[in-house]
Amino acid sequence: MRRWPLLVAAAAAFALETAVLRRWSVPLDLTLLVTAFAGFLMGPEWGAGLGFAGGLGWGLFSGGLAGLPAGAATVAGWCCGVVSPRFYRESPVMHVGVGALATIAFEASGLLFAWLFADAGFHSSWRVFGAHLLANSAAAPAVFLALGRATDTL
Amino acid sequence: MLEALLRHRGRIVPAVCLAVSLLLMTVEARGASVPLAGLLAEALKVPVSAVRAATGFLGRLAPYLSSKRELAARVRELERANRALLARVTALQAALDDAGLAAFVRFMQEEPEGTLWAELVGRDPVDRYRSAVLGSGALQGVEEGMIAVAPEGLVGRVVEVYPRSAVLLFVTDEGCSAAVRALESGAEGLLRGTGANSCLLTFVDPLSDLREGEVLVTSGLDGVFPKGLQVGRVVSVRAARGGLFLEAVVTPVVDLSRLERVALLPPPPRVEP
User: What is the ipTM score, two decimals?
Assistant: First the structure.
């Protein structure tokens, strides 16, 4: 298993997401998908660590509470790592499910933290969330396959 | 100790990350700034700016690429249209060959040796569909019996030649007759002028399937006109007086009233019986 491609992919996903996808309003969370991949195929510590780093970077870059996306992405990466041993890792169907799980975990924990720390700017609308859920689930198999080849885990 | 940490890293790392996140949220929620947050945010802007610049460059490049694709698609479309047109031309050429019109088309394309061009300088003052005077004569190479044609088809033949002029007898003149053949039915007959802007096709086999609208071409059987020149179009078909033959009213393909210039072909060589 190679680890450095994952770090490169995380950095590239972050840059691509902030520079291109958000600019063109594409509802795809590439950083979250990389986090989900790390958690699902490399363990919860990788998922949580990468999620924390990506979320923190995202929070610092976009303004608001920097810890909120960091905490939400940590939970999402950890969730993907926890469910990993229970399922067949090579299945693209599972990758769709993991993409959806990461999105839901990120949104749910983010909403919880936003409620706890009174940050109203986290949640925009359920419609936007639905779009992200669909896009992340649909893109997850391709992202997982590419990262799996790069890290030699799939 | 280290082994225990490594063994439980799946729980420790998430817990630490979550704890740090909660700590950050607590600090930020109280209005305090996170240490090094500004520095980190500035550092993150570098790769983001690089990607943004790269995508901007690609965005500016996109119209050129798309226009190239559009051009390639247009070229393919034109190639398809060209192939279809070539096939159509080939089919039409084959049809022309079948119809006996190829000789005339080839003449118009190649201008056989001995072809002269002459202007119409005068017309019959009584009836414009009988004859005309050409502005070229024997000095220009015009000979009696030369065949006058226009791009649409047969006009008539030269009947008198002077040094600098000649008289052209139209196919619509009563004194002009030509052996013709219908393209579709193959019916043959003798075409005679009526003195007006029409001709009469006579001596047509009553069993032939001559129909209105058919195109008539010279058959070459009279020894006067070469084979394959378009002459006219059948307007109506009727039984001739006496009932032995069919006859048809024919409109010339050439608009003789507006004719200004004709090509003069040498007459077909005489064939000894």
Answer: 0.85
